[in-house]
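Bit of a strange request maybe. I'm writing a small parser for C-alpha cell strings and I need a real example to test against, not something I typed by hand. Could someone generate the C-alpha cells for this chain?
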Amino acid sequence: MTSRASLTRRSLVGLAAAGLVAAALSLPASAAAAPAAAPRAHPAGATAHLPAPTGPYEIGTASARLVDRSRHDPWVPSRPYRELMISVWYPAAPGAADGHRRARYMAPGAAERWDATSPHGIPRGAIDFAALRTHAREGAPADKREGRRPVLVYAAGAGDPRTWGTALVEEMASRGYVVVTVDHTYENPGVQFPDGSVKDDGPLREALEEAQKNGTMTQLLKKTLDVRVADSKFVLDSLGSLPNGLSRVVDRRRVGMVGHSAGGVAAAQTMYEDRRVRAGIDLDGTLEFNPEPNGTNLMPVAEHGLDRPFLLMGREGSDRTTEPSWRSFWAHSTGWKRNLTLRGSLHQTYTDLPTLLPRAGVDRKVIEEHIGTVDPARATAAQRAYVASFFDRWLKGRDDGLLDAPSGRYPEVGFAG
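Reply from user aminoacidic:
Good idea to test on real output. This should exercise your parser:
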C-alpha cells in the first residue's frame, strides 16, 4: 500500500479518498479558469479514434440536464438545487446513421478545461478532445424491437469527466444496454450545460484547502462519497424521465452500476444503500476513507458487504488478499462475487487512457508509467468482455462462463476469487 503522503502527489490511484485529493492537487491552478482560447502546446492536436464497439446494435446518445430541487447544492449552498449533466447511450434503430451525426466525445467548453489539466500523461493540446467523435449517433431513435432493456449507471473516477469511460460505455450500448453516464458537478474541471455555461471544480478546491488546514480531510471525503451516492440515487429516480422518450426502453427492474476508482466506490456504496441496483462492478476503487495500513477506516459497504452480485476488478498487485477494504468486503458479502486482476495494468488502465495516450505522441516509458505494461488494445478488450459477461449473467440471464475460471482468450486476466 502506498503511503498517504505520496498519494496526494500523483493522479488517481484507485482510492476514492486519495483519488479525490490527488485529482484536486494535480490540477494546475490556472486550469479551472482557463480562457476558451488558451494556447495549445500542439495546435493541431492528434486525431484520435475510440475502438469500435463489437456488439450487434448501432448506438444512439442523448444528453440532458437534471435538476434535483429537493436539496441545495452541497458544494455551493447558495444554489437552491443540485444540477447534473448526464448522457444516455442506447441501442439505436437499424439505419440510425441516416440523418444523425456522430456525437462529440466532449462538449467544447468541457474539452477545453479537460485539456488544460494535461490529463493523466496526455500533454496539453496533444489530443483534440473537442474534435474527437464517438461511434454513437446524436439523437438517433432507439431500437424498440426487443422492448425494455436493462440499464446501467456509469460513474467516472474522482476529477474525471463522465466521458472518460466511453470505450466501455459504447460497448455495453452496442450489446443491448441503456447506459447513463453522470458528471458530478463541481468535482471535475469542466461540466458544460446546455446554455453553454461551464461549471468548474473551484468549490471543491476551496473545501479541500480548508480540510487540509483544519485537519478534516476524512470528513470531506465522506461528504464527497455522500454527494456521489445522492447524485446516483437521483439519477435512478430520473430513469422515468429520460430525454427523447428513452424512458420507454428502460427496464427499471434490471439496474446495474459500474464505475472506475471513486466511481467504483460510488457503485458499491449506492448498491449498499439502494436495492434498486441489482448488480455492480468496482473497477479499481478502494473502499476506505484516508486509507490506513490496518484497514480501520472502512466505508459502510466494506464493513457490511453486499447480498447481491458484485465484481471487483483491480490493477496489478491489488486484490482481495492485498487490499484491506476489499478483504473486508469479501468476508462480509453473502452475494455472488468475483475478484479479477488485469495483469500488467495500472489504475488508469480502466479508462479511455489506453486508447488515447498512445496517440498523444509520448514515448513508451510515459505510456507504461500511466497504463502499465499490458497491451492497450488487449486491456480494453478484456475489460469490455468481463463487464459484459457479468451484466449479461445477472441482468439478462445469459451466462457465457467467462467468469467461472481463467480463460485462454484473456490470459491478461487473473482470478483472485
